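Could you help me review a protein record that somebody else here produced? What it holds is a sequence and that sequence's fold in token form. I need someone to confirm that the token line plausibly describes how this chain folds. Take the sequence as given and treat only the tokens as open to question. This is what I was given:
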Amino acid sequence: MNKFDVIVVGAGPAGLLAAGRAAELGAKVLILEKMRTEGRKLLITGKGRCNVSNSAPINDFITHVFPNGRFLKNAFSQYFSEDILELLNRYNVDVTLERGGRYFPTSQKSKDILDALLKWMNNLKVEIQCGFRVEKILVDEGVVTGVRANGEEFLAAKVILATGGKSYPATGSTGDGYELARQVGHKIEKPIPALVPVETKGSVAQTLQGLNLKNVNAVVWINGKKAGEAFGEMIFTHFGLSGPIVLTLSRIMVKALQAQQKVEVTVDLKPALDEAKLDKRLQRDLNEHGKKHLINIFRNWLPASMIPVFIEELGLDGEKECHQVSGKERKQIRHMMKNMRFEVSHNRSFKEAIITAGGIITNEIRPKTMESKIVSGLHFAGEIIDLDAETGGYNLQIAYSTGWVAGQSFSK
């Protein structure tokens, strides 16, 4: 008979942590995974390197989580970054701390993380059935009794939904869990793509395709008002803007685009210099190289691929000698360096979003156990919950911590 103590729906990081913890406590655990293999999305995280977690302390960590990072304070106090690192170390996975407090496997292979978690499952005798799509959560008088998958009933007193969100649907994250939760009475905050690139109007971004900028500052403007900013790295693509700081700011942009508001991004290419200092530098360089052509001196200021864009956008004569550049032209150059502006037309789809914003609203979940306040014995873990974070290992840690807490709720 298909009878278990705990059924986990989804074999991603949240589901594996939930199953492992419940099994450690003596539970007979079944994981049902609709894909043919486990951890498909985990394998592609961090461009295949897997940003395992972040070294930030709890109080700092929760400031990087939206819309309500404080919901996770209890979960993080039970299971946090040092705990997942210790588990990986047990299975001979070394990690390296990189800039921004980001932990990566020293091997640079996400497969090593998945293999370690699956060895843990194997040692704990967790049963994993791939190719099983859960169609319904079985509930009797407000208490969970199991699930139905591929037409079969699987019974358990605890069910943990860890189906992921809607980002990277090819890995199995197609939003199934939202519908399962809705069927038993949960409210869902509309899922939207988060940590997602954006498309821009005009041809400037496309012209600069492939250019990677470091140490720049980007500001998002919504209907002309400043709505957010981020410092770091960005990249131009064939459709618009991407890279860490654009992904971080995308949450603001996607919501504004959905509300049909005007969204613009300005990029400060010289954030270390204020307007006055930058003007002095431009003036000095133009004076020192008075006989050189303007297009040649631009090489001291900008990446090569950006020079023709500046020349064209500002209507400058690149062959003009530097001593002939007017104060007005210098001001235009300075302004564009500090405020290179792009109007955002669309965000890219869930296919390119690293994470999903939205999901099961947190005020219907008990933060100490991840248990539903509506259905007894039903728990949630990972991206299915209305919690998302910036890049840097934060989202995976949310998955581990909520998964572990959901599994911890099992008691013989």
